[in-house]
């Protein structure tokens, strides 16, 4: 859905979401008012309505439908009177129920986030601390001691492979992680049952994450749950062994999920200063996982300016294969446009989004976010993507944000030659080969490690 405007005001609205194969009806806007009736959905019926006095662009049938309690009314209100003759730039966007009360749907999709292993559990811990709404959190691990420290409720901590590992962990061996998940498969199935969508998140390269995540995702897929894998690959300084194990784990995971988003930790180093502590670098990786999950879940679960139907999300993400994620945040006068540009130019994007056949994107701002800021971000993204791409858009208000806009974008449906996972693996291999070559040269020259230059991948582009 794109809101189309100009400096003089709102001039149109484009809706590209599809529900049940039927496209939403579009009613052209005037400068003063607009009405769009979105088709029925699994979550709710939605409608945008703009009137002047008693006059409305909506048909009588649409007015009758809107009177039904199952509709969510979302409107744009100007600070001026209802008879105002123009849509002022900077109109605040507000959401309200048909009777003025907060709208609640009894048909909401149930989303579960499963953090597997140490890295996945850490990411879930951060998600829990950020107070994400409408999501059920679980952690799965072979390390009982690490699980005991998690803020996740005890009933949502699943210790797998108790007979095999005795709660002592997988020792960095993916085969043990895999066997542990197989041993506890019935428990995993019970934890997943009832979900409509499951995120399986893990830091690949270790034993439990690399070995157990594919098994857990496979169980979810067999239950008919929309399954999204969102994982990180190791930093180069973690060593070749973890890199190889990560790639093998990703290959196995890819066969057991609908959509797989892989985040190369090495690329995160391009966004931080050289003085960044190691612990902060790992925290950044956890935070990227959090933003990825939240960017998708919020547009389904959080009552916002523009919500997305779960059926629409499933249409784009089911059997989508390898996907990419871009994240952008900005402040100031042009924050919406700058956040959108930052998202589509994100170092996490190996391939341009213009090659994607499906896009899910979410814009989040404070209560001061305006209709025209939403439109500014939409124009940046829609000008770049394939006109035939299936696009889903959601807008959410986070009261904690002020003068700040954040955009999360998921691009799916790439051709085999543009496969993001293959490119990520090639990138990691080049980094590791470069390290090995430098080490070999240093040894042959009899130099010590203190004289070796810092590798390029550890350098911040444009040092602060």
UniProtKB/TrEMBL annotation:
Q: Which domain of life is it from?
A: Eukaryota
> What sequence ranges are listed for the domain Tubulin/FtsZ GTPase?
110-304
Where is this protein localized, as stated in its record? Membrane; Plastid, Chloroplast stroma; Plastid, Chloroplast thylakoid
What are the boundaries of the signal sequence?
A: none
Q: Which UniProt keywords apply?
A: Chloroplast, GTP-binding, Membrane, Nucleotide-binding, Phosphoprotein, Plastid, Thylakoid, Transit peptide
Matching HAMAP family: FtsZ
**Which InterPro entries does the entry mention?**
Cell_div_FtsZ, Cell_div_FtsZ_CS, FtsZ/CetZ, FtsZ_C, Tub_FtsZ_C, Tubulin/FtsZ-like_C, Tubulin/FtsZ_2-layer-sand-dom, Tubulin/FtsZ_GTPase_sf
Record's SMART domains?
Tubulin, Tubulin_C
Organismal lineage:
Eukaryota, Viridiplantae, Streptophyta, Embryophyta, Bryophyta
| Protein known as | Plastid division protein FtsZ 2-2
Q: Which family does it belong to?
A: Belongs to the FtsZ family.
Q: Name one GO cellular component term.
A: contractile ring
Annotated membrane topology is: Peripheral membrane protein
- GO biological process per UniProt: chloroplast fission; microtubule-based process
Residues forming the Tubulin/FtsZ 2-layer sandwich domain are: 306-423
Q: Which GO terms describe its molecular function?
A: GTP binding; GTPase activity; identical protein binding
